[in-house]
Amino acid sequence: MATTLDKVEVVTVGVGWTGGIIGAELAKKGAQVVGLERGKARSTDDFQHIHDEYRYAIRYELMQDLSRETITFRNDRDTRALPMRQLGSFLLGEGLGGAGVHWNGQTWRFLPYDLEIKSITEKKYGKNKLGDEYSIQDWGITYDELEPYFYKFEQTAGISGEDNEFSAPRSNPYPNPPMKETPITERFKKAAKNLDLSPFHMPSGNMSQTYENPDGQTIAQCQYCGFCERFGCEYGAKSSPNVTVIPTAQKTGNFELRTHANVTEVMYDGNKATGVKYVDLQTGEEFIQPADIVVLTSYVMNNVRLLLNSKVGRPYDPETRSGVIGKNYCYQILPGATAFFEEEKFNTYMGAGSLGATVDNYNGDNFDHSDVNFIHGGSVSITQTGQRPINNNTVPNDTPNWGKQFKSESIKYYHRNLSVGAQGASMPHRNNYLSLDPDYKDIFGYPLLRLTYDFTEQDKNLHAYLSEKCAAIAKEMGASKVEPREISDHYSIVPYQTTHNTGGVIMGGDPETSAVNNYSQMWDVDNLFVVGASAFAHNGGYNPTGTVGALAYRAAEGIAKFREQKGQLVKVQSSSEHV
User: Fold this and answer.
1) 3 state DSSP class of 451
2) What is each CA distance from 542 to 79, 426, 499, in whole angstroms?
3) N-terminal to C-terminal alpha carbon distance within the chain
4) Those residues with Cβ within 8 angstroms of residue 401's Cβ, 6 or more apart along the chain or in another chain
């Protein structure tokens, strides 16, 4: 029997970047906020012995325990889905700060084209550019409306970077200068310029200098140790919710954090959300937390699963294409090329998560798509994130997997290989979606989330195009051998790719085709907000975090407006007012 607690004004489900932003912004305005986090508490002090590649990068210390909850996967809806028993293609995080603890820090703004992709594509290339199996749609907000929220997030996170002609336009410079130039980034930039491209330093959540953000939180200067992705930062030099928005929320006195609180259900009376049900993972006790406003700020897949298990919203049906919850799941493709050198040696073992250089010439609609069989594109980069020894042993494709030649090639190319890679955009397809699994349940008896996903012709065509562009840059860098990447016939959930999953509770201007408005407020349930990359109507050619942060600040403003209406269930509408 669940114990019903005293009602609170706002409850958030998950305390990472989105939950931290919502908690901080509302608590600063005097709202009483409870943040529920199913993982344990953690801070910079917990990462003093973090340079353990086996523990964190191989055994996934900071990630979700799949023996308690996982997802099931299949390539198509005629196949039975099976549980993901080991983390592979993407890494589901857990614990205070969420993925913001163990991310690399690459922080981008989605392009104006992304937010109005359907309108711009149809205007320039006609309605049949992709075909009706793809469900691209506008986001219900323009870049000009969202731009101030991008900057708000960048100020909070202390993003280091520089402007460039092909990225989204900026009203303000980055809060911090770009990261260090290295021989590797310098070589990439020189090659790109020789090919008439426009290289620039990658925007970074690793601090180029010690920085104090507008809330008074200090982030230390990066030490370029090479242990960012899958690791917490022991210096407090990587922007994370734990060193920015969470302490800001806590110092107001209006924010209560509860860890080990696993939310299993949104309480819903058919009209509004009345609170959430959660299990205390340490005691096994079950609680109901009533609230005036419920905000789902968990990871993409958990946001979708909670709504489906709680029977909130209309589940997506790929046959009829009706419904919205689970619709437009997108991932990414990773085209690229590996460059092998004969004489030059590179120190790829020092670095930072966002130390790199990029060209945006092939991203979004920055080039003419009239004569290609795809839309969008991707950012092309070289990164020096720190190649750790266990997980890295790059040799040419024709090298045997064992024996004398394998050993000699491993030694030869240990310091003589570089990778030029792209993050390719992912367009939504009617058969790529999220739903509840009819057969498998978690340890609490709730159905697992089922992922139905495969590469599309759009993916394959874009992958070939971008891999060719990456190979051209790699060759211009002076490589003796260049191997472009190839895409497999079908998506596999086994090898790691990215944790850039998006969609399922998408944003838009029409309640028939979207789940939330541009304040992340559910069309069907006025006092329920769903914040995060689950709102993306498609996935772009960048890391999603910068856009997630902007949408979170936009949502915080919307929740504040809704709160000011003193409980009247009136929809929060689009507005040109900015933070």
Assistant:
1) strand
2) 31, 10, 12
3) 43
4) none
pLDDT tens sequence across 497-552: 999 999 999 999 999 999 999 999 999 999 999 999 999 999 999 999 999 999 99
What is the pLDDT at residue 48? 84
Catalytic-residue membership of 500:
yes
pLDDT range class, residue 577, cuts 50, 70, 90:
very low
pLDDT digits (tens, 9 = 90+) for 122-140: 999 999 999 999 999 999 9
Q: How far apart are CA 10 and CA 319, in angstroms?
A: 37
CA angle at 126 for the pair 125 and 127, rounded to the nearest 5°: 135
Dmax (CA) for the chain in angstroms is 74
Rounded CA gap, 542 and 115, in Å?
A: 14
Q: How many residues does the chain have?
A: 579
Q: Which domains does the chain have, with CATH numbers?
A: 3-564 (3.50.50.60)
pLDDT, one tens digit per residue, over 385-400 is: 998 888 889 999 999 9
| Cα distance between residue 518 and residue 322, in whole Å | 21
User: Which region holds residue 455: left if phi is over 0, alpha if psi is between -120 and 50, else beta?
Assistant: beta
Quote the pLDDT of residue 570.
46
Segment 447-486, tens digit of pLDDT: 999 999 999 999 999 999 999 999 999 999 999 999 999 9
Q: Of 493, 377, 503, which is closest to residue 432 (Cα–Cα)?
A: 503
Strand-strand pairing, 447-452 and 71-74: parallel
pTM (two decimals): 0.96
Q: Which residue blocks in 224-280 are alpha helix, DSSP H? A: 245-251
449 within 8 A of 71, measured Cβ to Cβ: yes
> Phi first, then psi: what are they for 147, rounded to 5°?
-55, -45
Nearest to 579 by CA among 547, 562, 555: 555
| Helices of type H across 30-116 | 53, 99-102, 112-115
Alpha-helical runs (H) found in 158-298? 183-194, 245-251
Q: How far apart are CA 331 and CA 113, in angstroms?
A: 18
Q: How far is CA 407 from CA 395, 413, 414, 481, 529, in A?
A: 10, 10, 10, 19, 55
Pairing of strands 199-201, 502-504: unpaired
What sign does the CA torsion over 373, 379, 383, 389 have?
A: negative
What b/e string do you get for 341-351 counting C-beta neighbours within 10 Å, with b at 16 or more? beeeebebeeb
Strand pairing of 481-484 and 502-504? Answer: unpaired
Active-site residue, from 102, 201, 376, 500:
500
CA dist 528 and 296 (Å) reads: 8
pLDDT of 578 over the 50 cut: no
